[in-house]
Specification:
The chain is an alpha/beta fold and 315 residues long. The protein has eleven helices and seven strands. It is elongated.
Length: 315
């Protein structure tokens, strides 16, 4: 049987059926220290001697594709991408499976931990078996493995990263510091992602779709008046704005809210402030929306453009 997948499939890939994010508990940086610490991941360092903790028992072997189940509640990806699956299936057919999926043994079957896209592509190809790393433990590290591999994917949007962080903290019942250590991220990064779960659904969707940068969206999320916030979110998504423009809009929205509050009873409220736009464009590399004047135009032939795009995908 072939034995490896394309490099782009090195992490867990799962796709929920909706782009609506559910609110999640968002602990603060002042929370008590980690309850996750009692369940360290296989690569965590020992606090006492700095050595690496012994790895959980595991083995690598080919297992039947039909004996693998996918557990509920581990979906991170907000959009299924059939083109990616087709490309991965073509890669598996041409080059074999480069990296194993990760499963946990449960009685006479296996539970998928990481590698949903590889498994789906293998099933499309009609494979009877697939190369897998089999964990032989009680599964306490399964959630961390799944979510860490998801967060290592460059294709995850900030909204999907928020789902991953929320799921990890809910599953482990741990603090942001502990989650950050498990995910090899800073506590500030985790808190910023958790904050997204409390944003209006429309704002989350625009960030996920790339219509708004995370910085600009965070500013709009802080507007108190819901009606004005809704108006500004839709205008920003339709026209594209920079963080500087978002700050200006928020200042105007706060001033407008104060005017509404000061309007005597019976008098007509003042009209909403006129929106000012900067002409923006999205950087093809970092995907950030910036002032168009800051965009540099490069003249590239088709071959060089393809090379740059491939380099970006390879990280």
């Amino acid at each position: 049987m072939p034995s490896a997948s394309s490099g782009s499939s090195a992490s867990t890939d799962v796709a929920p059926s909706s782009t609506c994010l559910s609110p999640s508990h968002a602990p603060t940086a002042s929370d008590p220290e980690p309850s996750c610490a009692s369940n360290p991941s296989p690569t965590d360092r020992s606090a006492s001697n700095g050595s690496t903790s012994p790895p959980r028992p595991r083995s690598r072997r080919s297992i039947p594709v039909d004996a693998i189940d996918r557990p509920e509640g581990q979906n991170i990806r907000l959009d299924p991408d059939d083109d990616e699956l087709r490309e991965l299936a073509d890669s598996l057919a041409a080059y074999g499976q480069l990296q194993p999926i990760i499963v946990r043994e449960t009685a006479d079957r296996f539970e998928l931990i990481a590698g949903r896209r590889r498994l789906t592509a293998a099933r499309r190809l009609g494979w009877q078996e697939i190369d897998a790393t089999v964990l032989h433990d009680d599964g306490q590290d399964a959630d961390a493995i799944t979510l860490t591999e998801n967060l290592q994917r460059r294709q995850l949007s900030p909204a999907e990263e928020a789902v991953a962080c929320g799921q990890l903290i809910n599953a482990r019942g741990c603090t942001t510091q502990a989650a950050a250590a498990l995910l090899n991220r800073s506590p500030r990064w985790v808190l910023d992602r958790l904050a997204i779960l409390d944003w209006p659904e429309a704002l989350q969707g625009h960030v996920h779709a790339g219509r708004l940068s995370l910085t600009a969206a965070a500013i709009l999320a802080d507007i108190a008046d819901q009606d004005e916030q809704t108006r500004l979110i839709e205008a920003a998504a339709n026209h594209g704005i920079t963080a500087a423009t978002a700050r200006l809009w928020k200042q105007n929205a706060d001033a407008y809210a104060a005017q509404i509050e000061a309007t005597p009873p019976g008098e007509a409220p003042p009209p909403p402030p006129t929106l000012r736009f900067n002409i923006t464009a999205q950087c093809h590399s970092c995907k950030e929306h910036i002032d168009a004047e800051q965009i540099t135009t490069l003249r590239l032939c088709g071959r060089c453009l393809e090379a740059v795009s491939n380099a970006q995908k390879d990280g």
